[in-house]
Amino acid sequence: MDAARVGVITFPGSLDDRDAARAVRLAGAEPVALWHADHDLQGVDAVVLPGGFSYGDYLRAGAISRFAPIMTELVAAAGDGLPVLGICNGFQVLCESHLLPGALLPNAGLHFVCRDQRLRIDNAGTAWTSDYRESQELVVPIKNRDGRFTADPKVVTELEDSGRVVARYLDLNPNGSLNDIAGICNEAGNVVGLMPHPEHAVESLTGPSTDGLGFFTSIVKRLVNA
After folding, report:
1. Is 199 annotated in the active site?
2. Which residue of 34, 179, 182, 207 pairs with 7 in a disulfide if CB–CB is 3.0 to 4.6 A?
3. Which residue among the candidates 36, 96, 185, 197 is catalytic per the annotation?
4. H helices within 3-146, ranges in order?
5. pTM of the predicted protein model
6. Annotated catalytic, 185?
């Protein structure tokens, strides 16, 4: 069987696209470079929206990227079940594109945060978290300026009651997110947004752990067994 093909979209200002591609490769899939200005997903089996500062975040984090040509195809494909993972800026793009609810606001205290962060996996049933156990604790880096997740109280209640909080901060809340929310998913579980950076925790030589690799092995196993 051919390896699963996971697209990684590069926007102007993307910083972590190559890191995401390396994580995909380490997980056993073929990374496929996708360009923001194209209208072609190249038949990939899943897509990663990487971290960075797409279009410089000049208007609002992720706000311009939602209008990138490739997002037209991505939004439609995600609605049809294509697995999509948005990391940091990618999470912001997913919210701006209305693939996920809520918004990411400037951090409490208005400081850029960069640290190794403890997390807990609260939903191990998504396309991107099935290689974890529920309540499993991880250590992965976090680095953001606009990471404070917020949403209407009714939306937050719905996310909590339906088990759509994928990951939660432990020990401390680095950016003031409601309910310590670090990541959420859509109703189908194929679209996940995560503020921390699992692609920076896939090799012991360069990361605080290898705990982030599970996000990428999860999707590879899901695709292989589909």
Report:
1. yes
2. 34
3. 197
4. 17-26, 69-79, 89-96
5. 0.95
6. no
